[in-house]
Amino acid sequence: MMKVIGLTGSAGTGKTSVARHLKMLGAEVIEADEIARQLTAPGEPLLKKIAAAFGPDLILPGGVLDRAKLRQLIFSDEAARKKLDEITHPPIIAAIEKRLAELRRRPVPPQVVVVEAPLLFETGLDRLVDEVWVVIAEPEAVVRRLVARDRIPPEQAQAMIAAQMPQAEKMRRANRVIDNSAGFQHTRNQVEYFYKQVLAAQGEKEK
Predict the structure, then answer these.
(1) Phi, psi (rounded to 5 degrees) for 181
(2) Cα separation, 183 vs 92, whole angstroms
(3) What range does the domain containing 97 cover?
(4) Which is deepest, 7, 68, 139, 156, by most CB within 10 Å?
(5) What's the CA gap between 146 and 137, in Å, rounded?
(6) Alpha helix locations (H) across 151-183?
(7) Distance between CA 169 and CA 144 in Å, rounded?
(8) First vs last Cα of the chain: how many Å apart?
């Protein structure tokens, strides 16, 4: 029986690193951000809808989406962010549902599938999973990571964090919480412990 884990956390908490480690441990990983990139590739209908809604200056030469400019827009304008969500969330969710259905139809489905999604709760994707893991980190560390990763000023990093569901609320709704505030070895230990628990429970169900 296939177990579906929803993996989420605020921007900069390190959920992508956690997802990468889960993949190394043997989980099948579906990344919502990667699906979004595929759906907004040059020539894709979703990219055309975004350009129609927000203007052609969001499209770089070669038909590529200017993600930095779009990010700056949506985190400074709540109405723009809501409009973008209305355009992008339905096709992304549909693509994830399709991928999960394909995995379930395999002759031997994977034991564990991880759906990594920054907006797991906000988009209702949590209804598709069996349990939710939330990655957390100290706010100061999160801001530093966002500034370094996205090359943005601290103010914009703070705006990105403020636009998302509070970390405390995600923790309240989680089945398991992974603290990525310390070194990643500490994080890996937590991930491996939880993953072994899931595999053990799967083994019990299959007896």
Answers:
(1) -80, -35
(2) 32
(3) 3-202
(4) 7
(5) 12
(6) 154-162, 167-173
(7) 22
(8) 11
* pLDDT tens for the 207 residues of the chain, in order: 899 999 999 989 999 999 999 999 999 999 999 999 999 999 999 999 999 999 999 999 999 999 989 988 888 888 999 999 999 999 999 999 999 999 999 999 999 999 999 999 999 999 999 999 999 999 888 899 999 988 888 988 888 888 889 999 999 999 999 999 988 899 999 999 999 999 999 876 665
Q: Which helix (H) or strand (E) holds 7?
A: strand 3-8
Number of structural domains found in the chain = 1
**Rounded distance between C-alpha atoms, residue 23 and residue 40, angstroms:** 24
132, with CB counted inside 10 A (0-12, 13-18, 19+), is buried
What CATH number has the domain bearing residue 103? 3.40.50.300
DSSP secondary structure of 82-148: HHHHHHHHHHHHHHHHHHHHHHHTSSS--SEEEEE-TTTTTTTGGGG-SEEEEEE--HHHHHHHHHH
Written as six digits, the tokens of 88 are 């992008």
Taken as a whole, the chain contains a residue count of: 207
